[in-house]
Amino acid sequence: MKKLMLTAALVASCAAQADEGMWQPYQLPAMADELKAKGLEIDAKSISKLTEFPMNAVISLGGCTASFVSPKGLVVTNHHCAYGSIQYNSTPEKNLLEDGFLAKSLDQELPATPGSRIYVTEAVTNVTDQVKQGLESKVGNEFYQGIEAKEKSLVAQCEAEGGYRCQVYSFHGGLEYYLVKQLEIRDVRLVYNPAASVGKYGGDIDNWMWPRHTGDFSFYRGYVAKDGKPADFSKDNVPYEPKSFLKVSAKGVSDGDFVMVAGYPGRTNRYRTANEVENQFEWAYPEGKMLRERIIEIIKETAADGSDERIKYESLIAGLANYAKNFTSMIEFYGKSTMLEDRKALEAELTAWINKDSDRKAKYGKTLAELDSLIVTSQEHQARKTLMGYLGYTTMLPTARQLYRLANEKQLDDMAREPGYQERDMTRFKSGLERIDRRYAASVDKAIALELLSRYAALPKEDHIAALDKAFGIGSKFDAAKLSKTLDKMYAKTELGDKAVRLAWMDKSVSDFKASKDPFIQLAVALYDTDMAQEKQQKELTGKLMKVRPQYMDAIIAYNKAQGKPVYADANSSLRVTVGNVKGYSPQDGLHAVPFTRLEGIVAKDTGVEPFNAPQKQLELIKQKQYGDFYVKAIDSVPVNFLSTLDTTGGNSGSPTLNGRAELVGLLFDGVYESIIGDWGYDPETNRSIQVDSRYMLWVMKYLDNADNLLAEMEIVH
Question: Which residues are catalytic?
């Protein structure tokens, strides 16, 4: 792999390097000439206006991106983004994952997973001064709590008008804060998903790979009350009418064409220190990969393929496998790269630049050393913290802890409560408890808990938690059989597997919890004081980091500004825009990957065995060369997936890929294996995003699944 261009993470202003960068919409007008030269046909100013086309057609699902594609609230996103809802509505007798689903009329549409939301961003306001005012002298936990109180106040004001969800996002490690206001559509319904043999064709084997032949798309619809305002599910609700929607291109794109993506990328780490890089790649990723793969093995060993228990965990398996492969690539390409040396060199250059000027030295001279010291502290007990974090993949203990925390928080005034436990969070909290019915099996939960607790028991004594050891009888000599029997008794006795019981605990008092005989509630009560002490300690450290990291980012921005280089912020799940071109790449010496795959590639890969088991009807259509309106002469077929230079990451899944006229030409759903490490440093030679081509989506809808009602509803341009 070529040397990662880490210093180029701070983007040069020349057009040749503009494909790197996840830009905040307000930054785009300053890039107007460059964007026009690259192929943007609409006014760059329109992309910065969130209440105008095309930005108001791009929406968040809270983890994935999507877009409106009809005046009746029809939403297109990735198949894997709708996977949870497809799974939620599936049973062994009616397996929508396996067979696909199409609602031919509105009344046939199915409620999505409880808690599913469509978020339409309406305003982004810089609130840096309001957040930081009066906190200059605060440090540690006081600073953390001060920032949190300001954020909660701003959010409460923003949400005073019902139907909105607001959040304060920090940029550049806390250098800037923006308040994001989103319309929250609460009635979301599943409209259409192709069979998994189309939507997940290639499965985990093809994940992150090229060539790719995956029809990774599905459709939702948003509903509101008759007055047009967000409302909970009701048969009386009507389809939401968006202010604008995207036209879907049947013409698509060609090699070299301009493309752009608007979406909600989750997280990148382009500005992390060398210390953080080394720890993440040499400890955290290997540990995370191992644990994810082990949990997948446990689920498959415990729940038979095709059983109701397995169906409940299919979404979790997919998510774990996705990140296990992600981590594998991270580790592999880190080993081939000069990333660590480059970070160290960049820090040396930054330090030298700071030391050349007395004012800069006075302002930033101690920043990097202070930051590194705090980072070292944050890495203490990370083996225990990691295992405790992975216990979050079980259900009973996390549920009991959350419920008991809620009982404690409800004793406080609403504004004094921990975020996640305020009144504004209760609908989401309740939905989480409801979802458990289709995502939990006691046998699987117990098996995962046994594995993780056994690993915890093997940690050094200083990493142990007294209350946890006492609850499970973990002493100097570990007895796995004894632990297994203890867990058997706990799962047999708990009633938290019953939805009505879980929901009833939302209204119970602290004394009710302390009097409970439920073993998981008893454990949650026993762990509470330790949990709170550890949380306070973590907030103290985080508060210190929230003071120092902005100084570090301020130094980096000043350093690059001196060289004429604009800076984009690391991804943080807020709305971003990235631009690029349709383009192939060379993954290794002697190989060149062309930017399009074809229908015939599906037949060539097909074995008849999952995950390469395309529907027989599809194979016949391809053999008959039934290309219809979507034939492309340049490739003598219908394009399936295509590559672009777009700078994207997790959270961008489902993002509309647009041409210069802001017409939908594809849906972004993945990146190539070599670009996974792009979360840490962009390489223009190997960074490629993978899109499902709009022409393949339309072809599947028209010829394979006969989704004529949806095709008639969308505006398709030729």
Answer: 80, 216, 653
